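Reply to dn_fold:

You asked what the input looked like. This is it:
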Amino acid sequence: MSRPSRRWLLLWLLAGAAVILLAWPLDTRVDAALDVTSRPDWQPFAKWCSRIGEGGVIGSWGITCAILCLIANRPSTAAKIFFVALTSELTGLSATILRVLFGRTRPSNHEVPQGFYGVWHGGHWIIGQFKFSSFPSGHAASAVGLAAAAWLINRGWGAVAAVYALAVMWSRMALQCHHLSDVVASAVLSIPLAIMFKPFLLPWLEVQFSHWNSWLRRK
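and this is what came back:
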């Protein structure tokens, strides 16, 4: 990584940390304001928005669209779509690893005081337990990673994907799965990761899809 890139990354992380700290005091207020768990008019929509932010859904969409583009003899488009989906999966995975280690309580967890508990609490491992997996949000990281990667490819795609990402982030808070600072942290994490992935991941995918397209045309 070049010196300007390292400087940019450091500034981004410092600014991101400041934004997370500013969001922190608002968590409780925002949790209550966005809560739709007792509102049957909004809850189904929130669940649907949350569902489309899952890694399996994004991965299936990416693979299917890439294959269709490859069949249509558009390997470059197929590579770009696959890059967007793969970046989303990688940013979501990064957030999942971190939230397992931090062990923050979800807004819906009323069994213990809100806080960070790491990987061990009450004499037991809490790694992977849903109620201790709030910070950062995996769904939000996947959605923001997708939006950031799409923006790097095409501004129009990126604008549409940004709306999608905001809907996923809202749904995770509305369903009391994450705090405001959780989804903000996901954005802070995912955007620079998407930028760092593009220079080496996209060219490699374009080469691979070009080879696959040539093989397909010979069949």
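The mean pLDDT is 94.
Hope that clears it up.
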